Every structure is written in structure tokens, then in C-alpha cells.
Amino acid sequence: MTELPRTPSFRLDGKRALVAGASSGIGLGCAAALAEAGAHVVAAARRADELSALVEAIRAAGGSAEALQLDVSDVAGTRTAVAAHGPFDVLVNSAGTARHTPAIETTPEDFDTAMAVNLRGAYFLMQAVASGLIAAGRAGSLITISSQMGHVGGIDRAVYCASKHAVEGFTKSMAIEWGPLGIRVNTICPTFIRTPLTEVTFNKPDRVRWIEENIKLGRVGEVEDIMGAVIYLASDASALVTGTALLVDGGWTAE
């Protein structure tokens, strides 16, 4: 009888997962997905009340979670927190911010605010988690929630696109450096997902028309659309995947 290959496990039992930006939106969805797959989730964000509510909900659903108040733009604080609570087998960095204005109107303050979180904070959070894994001699999967805007341009999004294109760049370099150590580094690149962060955009009819014209599947994204993707990249199912971007964009970048 032919011996059939077996699908690698999507389960994360026994894994510790850090989710930054977990208090709402995509980050909350990722935390819920990882906990459902069996990981112990350390839910991190700046807002303590929202984190407490998330942890309570995960535990009520039978999962394992704890809260960690964290601001990724504080590099020193991030390093200290990761060292104290790690090492982490999985990182999902969903912490992000946006300053959407026409490029001609971008202020240095808006530029610096976006870059402090989306680029600088993301870079050094990745470094901190990888350092813990390397010191422990452990493999891991590090995931950044990037954006389709890390691959294309967008109206009023010069600063945001710049930060996300940069994330795609350091992801490839880190994947090359840490691959021999068993540490995989990837991004998930969503299209427009309905979250508190995107509410301002969805309140503008001209922007909604632009979005609907570009998403080939004919609908905007929901948080649930990202949850399967994060389990795939976090688990052994993607054991040979590193240095790449998983586009969950409804076909936006297909052209």
C-alpha cells in the first residue's frame, strides 16, 4: 500500500506567541487565532483595559493568554519586556499607525510618528525577539503585519507606503541572516480591513469607491480573513517559507 504524505500540523500547542498591537483590529484577531490553535498568547499593546478584556475573552473560550503593556516605539522598554517574558516561538507584530495626507502636506511630525512605530518599532521588536531565540538556541516564526501598500502606492499614503516598503526590505534581510538558525521571517500584507484604524477611510465615499474598484474579489477585508494566514505562517505548515510576503489583498496587487 502506498504510504501517503501527511499534512504538517497547523497546531501551536506548547508554543509561546507574542502579539504586539493586540488590543484591537487585526492584532486582536491574530491573538484569538493563535490561542485557538493552542499557543499561549502574550497580548501586548499600550491600552491596558482593552488587553485585559481580550485576555479574559481568550481564557473564557478555553485558551491561554496574559497581558503585557508595551509601546513598540519605546525601544529600550521593548527590549526589557521581551527579555523578561520570552523567549517567544512566535511573534506577530500588528502594532502600527497611519498619518494619511497628500505628500505635499506631510509634516515632519507625522513622518516621524509613523516611522517610529511602523518601521523603527517593528525593526527593533523583531531584533529583540530574535535575540531571545538565538540565545536559547531555538527556532521560531516572526511575522509582521505589513500591508499591500508595502508593494504598491496609494492615495494620500506616501509616508505609510514608505514605512511598509521598508518593512518588506528588512524582512528579506533578516530572513537571510537568521534562516540558518531556524528563524523564519515573513510578512502578511492585507488589503483594506474593517478595523477601528480604517474607520476614517471607510467614512469617505471617494475612498470607498477607489477601494472597491481595486479589490478584484469585490469586497473589503474582515479581520477573519487574516486569521488563517497567521496560523499558516506561525505553524509547521509553512516550515519552508521565509523572507516572503503573504498578500491577503483580494487581488489588489495582481495587476
Commentary on this structure:
With 255 residues, this protein is an alpha/beta fold. It has a single domain (16-195, 223-246), classed as NAD(P)-binding Rossmann-like Domain (Rossmann fold, 3-Layer(aba) Sandwich), CATH 3.40.50. It is built from eight helices and seven strands, in the order βαβαβαβαβαβαααβ. The protein has helices at residues 25-36, 48-60, 75-85, 108-136, 158-178, 199-202, 205-214, 224-234, and strands at 16-20, 40-45, 64-69, 90-93, 140-145, 183-190, 245-248. It has a seven-stranded parallel sheet, sandwiched between helices. Helix 1 crosses helix 8 (224-234), helix 3 runs parallel beside helix 4 (108-136) and helix 4 (108-136) runs parallel beside helix 5 (158-178). The chain is globular. The model has no long low-confidence stretch (mean pLDDT 96).
